[in-house]
Design goal:
79% helix, single chain, mainly alpha
Length: 85
């Protein structure tokens, strides 16, 4: 990657940027929820969805050597972050 591209990515990434974008998405979600009815999956629907998405996750993980570590970290951090909400 050219140095200018790397600098652009570095200048617009990192934890602070990710958190700010997450807060933006949370606000957008709040607005969307106010306008739309959110349906929750039944336990059966959730099981079907998880089974189908595992294929996608497996393919994504196998496509790059570092993705397995990324997914493991995500799965480790998700419960604690979800509990905060």
């Amino acid at each position: 990657m050219p140095e200018a591209g790397r600098r652009a990515i570095d200048a617009n990434s990192g934890e602070e940027t990710v958190r700010a974008f997450g807060e933006y998405l949370d606000r957008e979600e709040d607005l969307a929820v106010a306008k739309h009815k959110v349906e929750r999956l039944t336990a059966n629907q959730e099981q079907i969805w998880k089974k189908k998405i595992e294929v996608v996750i497996d393919e994504w993980t196998k496509a790059h050597p570092k993705r397995e570590a990324v997914l493991a970290t995500y799965r480790k951090l998700l419960p604690a972050e979800s509990a905060k909400q």
